[in-house]
Amino acid sequence: MRTKKIAILGSTGSIGTQTLDVIKKDGDIQVLGLTTHVNIELLEEQIEVFSPQVVGVFNSDKAIELQRKLKQKGSKVEVITGIEGLITVATLSEAEMIVTAVVGMIGLLPTIEAIKAGKTIALANKETLVTAGELVMNLAKKYNTPILPVDSEHSAIFQCLRGNEATSISRLILTASGGPFRDYTKEQLREVTVEQALKHPNWVMGSKITIDSATLMNKGLEVIEAKYLFDVEASQIDVVVHKESIIHSMVEYKDGSTIAQLGVPDMRHPIAYALYYPERKEAEYIHRLDWTKLSALSFSPPKKDLFPCLDLAYEALKIGGTMPTVLNATNEIVVESFLKKHLPFNEIPTIIHNAMEKHICINSPSLDDILKSDEWAREWSRKKVEACWQKL
Questions:
Q1: Is the predicted pLDDT of residue 204 greater than 70, yes or no?
Q2: Global pTM?
């Protein structure tokens, strides 16, 4: 088998480290580039194991520190920094595939440049399509660039669609675990702590996406992403709470049949599926379902009254234009503030809703419109959080 050459944006995060785990176990993929935001200690370990040509460290001070350490070791690995560093790694000439595993809006520009460079995109950065879905998918069509979903839900839908016509879709059904607070009351949600919110019942994920799962915003962002990935209407995308996280998502077809993708909650499966697509690679390291012990699969509607972020995402998608950008940017700020204990859990959807009400939406936005709307939402949200913090 020919060795595939890839680069990973966000190699020290949850998806990035699991991607490298898959690569290490299989041994037939060459890693040409890696990036991190500030975690140079882990990046240094990854350099030792995978010997990339170049690494990007977004934080310039940390980049200088890593460069000094590598020089002392006699390493010839190139260290670059900033958004230019991410773009350089995303467009490495020899790399065939770019795994975009960075968290947040920061993944947009490198992904766009990777698409223009003709790289296959293994997309784990949902914010890319949330903030600029139409623009990005149009670019992918223009440059004939495949976008392979890595999120477990979108990978499941992608697998369920294989061999079937998109025109035969009735609806896409995204499953949600419901997060750690699915059985809470409104009163209990007022007292939620950061430590509680970071204890996801089924998945091991980074802190930002774990909080998004707790508010159901993660599912809302996935709804927006699914609309652009699979070219369906918002009305064709439903969400159902499935607390066991065994069914990762489903596709209902016009003839009434439903195809579901099942497996243990392990992100290495959708990662491996994207890395080796269209083949299915043997993966002995992934546990199999034991059907003799699987006594029940439960389903229920999401509690939208307790978790309004899901409806806010649907509303942003319905309005379109720059509204999903504002939804995403505000969410990034309020989640960061909650993690710093500067904002109560139940204020997260309130500030997002307020930002959406304040924003003057731009239809059919350019990339510049998207970036400016993102900047506006962040500035507005920080001021709102600061006012809230002063009242605590």
A1: no
A2: 0.94
